[in-house]
Amino acid sequence: MNRENFSNHIPLKNIEITDPFWLEKTELVRKEVIPYQYKALHDRIPDAERSYAIENFVKAGETVRRLKNGEEVPVYPADKWHYDDNNAAPEAFHGWVFQDSDVYKWLEAVSYSLLNYSDKELESKAKAVIDLVCSAQLDNGYLDTLYVINNRDEIFSNLKDFHELYCFGHMAEAAVAFYDATGERKLLDAACRFADLICKTFGENGIKGYPGHEIAEMALVKLYNFTGERRYLDAAKFFIDERGKKPYYYDIVLGKETVNDNYHYNQAHCEPRKQNEAVGHAVRGVYLYSGMADVAKLFNDDELYHACEKIMDNIMNKKMYVTGGIGATVDGEAFSFDYDLPNDLAYSETCASIGLIFFARRMLEIKPVARVADTVERALYNTVLSGMAQDGKSFFYVNPLEVLPEASQKDSRKRHVKPVRQKWFGCACCPPNLARLISSIGEYCYTENENMLYVHQFIGSRVKAENADLVIKSSYVQNGKISIEINPKKRFTFAVRIPSWCNKFNFSVPSEIKDGYAYFEICDECIIDCDFGTEVKMIKCSNRVRANTDKIAVTRGPFVYCVEEADNGKNLQMLKISKNPNFRIFENEIIADGFREKECETLYSDWREPELEKAEIKLIPYYLWGNRGENEMSVYIRI
Ligand SMILES: [Zn+2]
After folding, report:
1. Is 429 a catalytic residue?
2. What average pLDDT does this structure show over 621-633?
């Protein structure tokens, strides 16, 4: 690692988003997603699966009150991942073990939204939720409603399967965001009390365990960055150092002998420093890798950084869909083996792509690598945006690249692939994660240090950076053009990513091109006009990916396109795109020349040249699919 490359993202406070494309999304989050989620957390949506999230905090608050009064408090089992009226007493905890985190993610999204748009009513709703959250905290700082309600004596007894440290992580992230947005410390103080308990409980002289679902690592770093309390940073490093050590902590707890390399699902099969491949549950993975990158940077830890580099390369080169989706298999919601990227069985969880963006941002802060910034773009404009309906009222958890609604209904292997977005999920990790990412989108666009300011993503905004004030006007998504007005505060080097899909670019000011970035020496006020165009491209996938041989994907600028039944009729597999498709671009669609192969009902017959009739193939951006009811969809098309 070269410390000279180190940079930081620009705080959200200093970024005002003005981009019409992104403002529409952040406004959807503010006006639709946040209020809807508030209702969902309170179980006020009649036909949605119950969340129990707020209800659990009410129950836990009552438990804490009774404990303080010295009253007898009942004990219930804390031994399952999900609790409902069929397997739990009415007064016991309900919902998923990680249910608290949905409340925290909502609070985090609200915080970012308040930074962009002051809203007193929303702020007071959030404060009421924070009061409720804090009422559920035990005197020693512990806060996880499952154990507070059900069994205080079993706290931290099953780190592998239960989510106390995960919920802590989301609590800390929400706490920092809310304090940053409003100056209110109540949640931050509560999160620090919980963090202090964790620092006291875990360590060389305490529990030598680590989270089964990672996030505490990066959350503790965030808490350290914010408070300056060194013990939080040390705790993050401790969790990374202990993970995967043999004998496995998880085996020791169970009284088992460590026999082989277990725990890939939790990325605990070996020590993070020795990991070189993305494995296991994809969201857990990218959250761990984010924490590893944070710790690598703050401890100047080359070994840990090189592990992060290898893992990022493995994802980008062998385990990522063209849409930026990761975690190819439903089996464990996990990374599959190299080049195993099935289209119709894809898992590609929205949260996993969000986590990939977290990981990428941290890697960019260690070293600007254009391909990594390209990966942020790929995930953001395709899988992440696809996660939310155009009206902000329904969501995808799974983001397939090929859908046949009949298969989703009749084939149990594809039951996870939904042909339309769902209103809410009992396990609702993705919608609030989307809300917090979209409302903090500015954090992923820029990094800077004393000498350099990088633009990684092109989102219209006003930016107050250390080196300069910027006014960025972007019609990147329409025509690939960006105009950047720079008012320098001193002499510095300005760098602009050149998107990997762009072969012909133009800058209005001379630049030096190096490793995917254009570099400009800035000493005076200036305007740099960038033109990347938005050429329509046909993208080939490695032939190691079996599902995509003799097929192409169409992209334009940052967007991957797809075909839908609503435009092209049933049996999308019959479509073949011409080698010279004469792409015609309209606002939100591309028309291409192609053919439709004549249907053949005979299951087997002698081979002969297929009969083709000419067809116009209509493509729409992938993120817009599934907005016109149930229908077939495919990203890859035969050529
Ligand atoms: Zn999710």
Report:
1. yes
2. 96
